[in-house]
Design brief:
283 residues, mainly alpha, two-stranded antiparallel sheet, 14 helices, 2 strands, 3% strand
Length: 283
C-alpha cells in the first residue's frame, strides 16, 4: 500500500537537491552558460583579434582531452559536445567546467590586456546562478567547484520527514515543495515552513503557543539544550519574525526589498531538520 507521501505526491529530497548525479536540465544550463561565454568577454572589453574562446578550446583540446595540439581545428564546440554526451559522468562534467574556470583565471591574471570587468567572475556567477536555480548541490567558490549540500545534510532532511509527527512532517514537506517549485522556488515561504516545523515540534512537547516560549520550557520535559544552541535557534526564530523579511508576516511594502535566496532556504531546511532530529534524540 502506498505511503501518505506517495499518495499525495510529495517530492523526495533526492529529487529536489541534485547531488552526485546530473540531470538533462543541469547539462543544458551549463551549456547555456558556455553559449554566453563570448558575450561575457565582449562585455568585459576583450579585443576580437585576440579571441580567448579559441584559446580556451585549444587548452581543453591539448591539456584536458590530451590531443595533439597540431591537430586542433576550431570550428565545433568540443566543450559543449562533451558536456551534452550522456556517457560523460556528472563529475566529469564538473571537472571540465572547473578546468575552464581555472584556465580563464590564469589567462586573465597573465593577460597584458586589462579587462573592464573580470570575465571569469562573470562566467562563474552565471554558472552559480544556474546551479542555484536547478538545485544542484555545488557552487564555484574561489575558482573551484565545492559541494554545498552533503549526503549527511540530505539525510537529515529525509530523517526528519520520515520520523516526525504528522504536523511536523506536513511543514517539512511543504518547505521542501516550496523550495522545489519551478522555475523559481517560493523561498520566503519555504523558510517559514521550515521554522514552523521546529515550532510545531516544540509546541507539541511543551504546550506553549510560540517557539520562543517553548524553547525556554523544553528543560521541564527533560530536553536539556546547551545555552548557546538555544540562543542560536532563538536568533533564527527572531530572523524569521522580522517585519522586513516578510517570512512570518506580510511585507509592508509592495517591492519586497528583502528576497531570500535558494541557498538561504536550503540552509534553513537543513538546519531545522537537523535541529528536530536532535530534539527527538534528546527526548
Amino acid at each position: 500500500m502506498a505511503l501518505f507521501s506517495e499518495r499525495y505526491g510529495y517530492v523526495k529530497v533526492s529529487d529536489v537537491i541534485i547531488r552526485e548525479e546530473i540531470t538533462p536540465d543541469i547539462r543544458n544550463g551549463i551549456c547555456n552558460c558556455f553559449d554566453l561565454l563570448e558575450r561575457v568577454y565582449r562585455k568585459c572589453g576583450y579585443n576580437i583579434l585576440d579571441n580567448p574562446i579559441i584559446s580556451i578550446h585549444k587548452e581543453v583540446w591539448a591539456y584536458y582531452f590530451n590531443k595533439r595540439s597540431s591537430e586542433f581545428r576550431f570550428g565545433r564546440d568540443i566543450i559543449i559536445e562533451y558536456i551534452q554526451n550522456p556517457a560523460v559522468k556528472w563529475y566529469e562534467v564538473l571537472d571540465i567546467v572547473e578546468f575552464v574556470i581555472k584556465y580563464m583565471h590564469m589567462h586573465e591574471r597573465d593577460a597584458k590586456v586589462a579587462y573592464k570587468h573580470s570575465p571569469v567572475d562573470l562566467f562563474a556567477a552565471l554558472l552559480n546562478q544556474e546551479f542555484e536555480r536547478l538545485h544542484f548541490a555545488y557552487r564555484i567558490v574561489n575558482y573551484e567547484i565545492v559541494e554545498i549540500t552533503s549526503k549527511q545534510e540530505i539525510k537529515a532532511i529525509e530523517s526528519a520527514i520520515a520520523n516526525s509527527q504528522h504536523n511536523v512532517k506536513m511543514h517539512l514537506n511543504s518547505a521542501l515543495e516550496k523550495y522545489a517549485l519551478r522555475p523559481n522556488g517560493d523561498y520566503r515561504n519555504s523558510i517559514k515552513e521550515s521554522i514552523s516545523a521546529v515550532e510545531a515540534f516544540c509546541r507539541e512537547k511543551t504546550g506553549e503557543s510560540t517557539l520562543g516560549k517553548a524553547l525556554s520550557k523544553l528543560e521541564k520535559k527533560n530536553i536539556i539544550l546547551p545555552p548557546s544552541l538555544k540562543a542560536a535557534f532563538s536568533k533564527l526564530y527572531e530572523y524569521t519574525n522580522h517585519a522586513d523579511t516578510g517570512i512570518r508576516h506580510a511585507l509592508m511594502d509592495d517591492d519586497g526589498k528583502y528576497t531570500p535566496t535558494a541557498d538561504e532556504a536550503l540552509f534553513m531546511l537543513v538546519s531545522c531538520s537537523a535541529f528536530i532530529n536532535y530534539l527527538e534524540s534528546k527526548s
